[in-house]
Design brief:
Blueprint (H helix, E strand, L loop, with lengths): L1 E5 L5 H10 L3 E5 L3 H8 L10 H10 L3 E4 L7 E4 L15 H10 L7 E5 L7 H12 L8 E5 L9 H7 L2 E5 L2 H11 L7 E5 H32 L3 H8 L22 H8 L5 H11 L1 H12 L4 E5 L14 H9 L4 E5 L11 H5 L4 E4 L11 H7 L4 E4 L12 E3 L9
Parallel strand pairs: 1-2, 1-4, 2-3, 4-5, 5-6, 7-8, 9-10, 9-11, 11-12, 12-13
Antiparallel strand pairs: 6-7
Helix pairs in contact: 1-3, 4-5, 8-10, 8-11, 10-11, 12-13
The protein binds ligand SAJ.
Length: about 400
């Protein structure tokens, strides 16, 4: 089988790697000339375990080539970004539409086209299908179209691409069948055949489920600060119940999935999607909550911010709530930022960040912050106070004052 994959990012490239490892011929298409040149030399541009060796081998064995333009193939897979439109929170399909149009000259009867990008419910039927119909194809008869969302966690992509169950949402049952033959090349999880709109909404709801649950945890943290209860103890105790799984409160929700996908549902049914929107608002309010308590801890001075990635142990800072917090505090405080996972000439070492600081503000759960050299911190800081918004620091020497979501009520 020959597969042409449009978009060689965090999903497209690992997917290409797995097809080629299973002896499929793969063309990886990207608009970035430098990325294409490097990929053809076997040099990859994403930080993800396992991919580099597979691509190097596939390039040597001529099973993988990167290209600026699509080529004829049996299956086409679209893995391009879908941001949201700021004005109305709807799904911005422009990259998906351009990708679909780009493959039309290379399509032949009997081909399968799969959109993996996360898209709003009804996008396949209402927007994507007409693109191919207008080009003269009859979907389900001479071209097979499906939406098969990816559902992998960065850092574990190869493992999850192979083993996770997969939603296969065909425009017709024949389309689902053809798309499942494509994934059957390397997926070992269950292939669940359904309609495109069900696949679209399932994917959006997976991330919405998580966003809503995080909002509940964040609301609990606020309630506890107000009424004087230890939120972290409540979560620990409640989660001993076999059917309860309270999530963790934090400084807000970042990343390109949870902070975006719920809006795709909201935009489709704004009058009805009340919990979904309120959860987004609650999570978006967390930077203000953090700033409010920083101001209660110290009214002026220097803050050492530890961690700006949206997620621990990654260098990914897309949609990170840390930047909003820093922007809101920077007019009143001197701020030094330390993040061992992000290269930025403005960021400083832990030593420099904590030097003469009045407060350490932990905004990300990198492993490096879980066990710090408290002697260095005590000696370095002007006032040894830590506010840990990710609840990762368990114990500190008595000379250091630690605030987290367990004891913020002490400040009221
Ligand atoms: N967060 C909390 N409290 C928690 C859990 C997370 O505040 O209890 C925050 C994190 O700090 C982070 C944000 O939420 O800022 C998102 O992190 P995440 O690890 O929950 O999610 P993502 O965006 O890295 O990956 C998600 C995953 N979806 C689900 O777990 C349902 C992943 O499987 C998807 O493939 C990915 O979105 C995607 O591409 O859609």
């Amino acid at each position: 089988m020959k597969v042409c994959i449009i978009g060689q990012g965090y999903i497209g490239l690992p997917t290409a790697a797995l097809f080629s490892r299973n002896n499929c011929e793969v063309v990886g298409v990207d608009i970035n000339e430098k990325i294409v040149d490097n990929l053809n030399k076997g040099i990859i541009h994403i930080e993800e375990p396992g991919i580099s060796d597979i691509i190097k081998n596939a390039v040597e064995n001529k099973l993988y080539t990167a290209s600026l333009t699509p080529q004829k193939a049996d299956a086409f897979i679209i893995t391009v970004p879908t941001p949201y439109v700021v004005e109305n929170y709807s799904c911005d399909l422009s990259y998906v539409i351009t990708a679909c149009e780009s493959i039309i000259p290379f399509l032949e009867k009997g081909n399968t086209v799969i959109v993996e990008s996360t898209i709003a419910p009804m996008s396949t039927d209402e927007v994507i299908k007409p693109i191919f119909e207008n080009a003269g194809f009859t979907i389900g008869e001479d071209l097979y179209l499906a939406h098969c969302p990816e559902r992998v966690l960065p850092g574990r992509i190869i493992e999850e691409l192979i083993h996770n169950d997969r939603i296969i949402g065909g425009v017709t049952p024949e389309c689902s069948k053809k798309a499942s033959e494509v994934y059957g090349q390397f997926v070992e999880g269950e292939l669940m055949l359904t309609e495109a709109k069900t696949a679209e909404l399932s994917k959006c709801m997976e991330n919405t489920f998580r966003d809503v649950n995080i909002a509940l945890a964040n609301e609990l943290a606020k309630i506890c600060a107000e009424i004087g209860v230890n939120a972290l103890d409540v979560i620990e105790m409640a989660n001993k119940h076999p059917r309860v799984n309270l999530h963790s409160p934090g400084p807000g929700v970042g990343g390109h999935c949870l902070a975006i996908d719920p809006y795709f549902i909201y935009a489709k049914a704004p009058q009805t999607a009340k919990i979904i929107k309120l959860s987004r608002d609650t999570n978006n309010s967390m930077p203000d909550f953090v700033c409010e308590y920083v101001r209660k801890i110290i009214s002026k001075g220097k803050i050492a911010v530890l961690g700006v990635s949206y997620k621990g142990n990654t260098g990914d800072d897309r949609e990170s709530p840390a930047y909003e917090i820093i922007a809101k505090l920077s007019s009143d405080y001197e701020i030094d930022i330390h993040d061992p996972h992000i290269e930025n000439p403005d960021f400083v070492s832990l030593d420099e960040a904590t030097k003469d600081a009045d407060l350490i503000l932990v905004l990300c759960d990198h492993n490096e912050f879980k066990s710090m050299d408290y002697n260095l911190i005590k000696e370095n800081m002007k006032n040894p106070i830590i506010f840990d918004t990710k609840n990762i620091i368990k114990e500190v020497p008595s000379e250091i004052k630690l605030y987290n979501y367990g004891n913020l009520y002490e400040l009221n």
